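Hi all, posting the design record for the shared folder.

TITLE: backbone redesign
STEP: 1 of 1
STRUCTURE INPUT:
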């Protein structure tokens, strides 16, 4: 029997718990539009933009809505690398955000896309912070999410020509608590379109998983951007 990495189990559990997130709704579960900044998306608009459950994305299928919860709690050290760990908790915070996840039948690779809507120029501020961190943290950093992880390197990739500005990067991570850690490859694309950010993330393990994760990312970006563009 193949050894299932502890990291994969942790992230899958985090994604499952993330389904409990509120997606940016008010306490009553509704969409309170009173006195909120101009130009932000409503809960219903984000819901309509995100790919529906059951959508085929390459070899994967969108299988759950994850809200914003445990997976967004990754903490980076040094703090300057936090933009590469989880952007939803960065200041300035989004007015609201939600995501949908996708995975192949075997569970790996997996990924998600998050739509975040911001007031004023806040989306541009967050985008710039991520852009800086790619270079500042190229030699790696540490993260915590239940367990300890070592990001060995951060590599900037070619960004798609989407939105007002876009970037792409990859992270090579090891589980610091594993005696024989394996390579976790995480690939990210971030697109800013006005006051909105679309953030994609896919993950695979070892060399074969890296290839599959890249393929999933390409398919995910294409499918979600097409739906976003149709509705904007």
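Okay, here is what came back for every position:
SEQUENCE:
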């Amino acid at each position: 029997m193949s050894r299932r990495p502890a990291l994969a189990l942790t992230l899958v559990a985090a994604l499952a718990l993330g389904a409990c997130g509120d997606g940016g709704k008010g306490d009553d579960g509704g969409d309170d539009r009173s006195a909120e900044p101009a130009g932000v998306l409503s809960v219903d608009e984000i819901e309509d933009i995100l790919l529906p459950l059951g959508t085929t994305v390459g070899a994967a299928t969108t299988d759950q809505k994850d809200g914003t919860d445990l997976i967004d709690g990754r903490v980076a050290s040094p703090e300057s690398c936090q933009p590469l760990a989880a952007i939803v908790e960065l200041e300035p915070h989004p007015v609201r955000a939600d995501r949908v996840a996708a995975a192949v039948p075997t569970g790996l690779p997996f990924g998600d896309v998050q739509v975040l809507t911001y007031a004023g120029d806040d989306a541009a501020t967050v985008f710039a912070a991520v852009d800086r961190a790619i270079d500042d943290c190229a030699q790696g950093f540490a993260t915590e999410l239940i367990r300890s992880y070592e990001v060995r390197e951060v590599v900037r990739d070619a960004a798609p020509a989407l939105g007002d500005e876009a970037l792409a990067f990859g992270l090579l991570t090891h589980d610091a608590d594993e005696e024989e850690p394996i390579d976790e490859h995480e690939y990210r694309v971030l697109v800013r379109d006005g006051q909105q950010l679309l953030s994609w993330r896919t993950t695979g393990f070892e060399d074969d998983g890296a290839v599959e994760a890249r393929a999933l990312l390409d398919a995910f970006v294409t499918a979600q951007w097409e739906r976003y563009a149709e509705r904007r």
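COMMENT: The radius of gyration is 17 Å.
Let me know if anyone wants the other runs.
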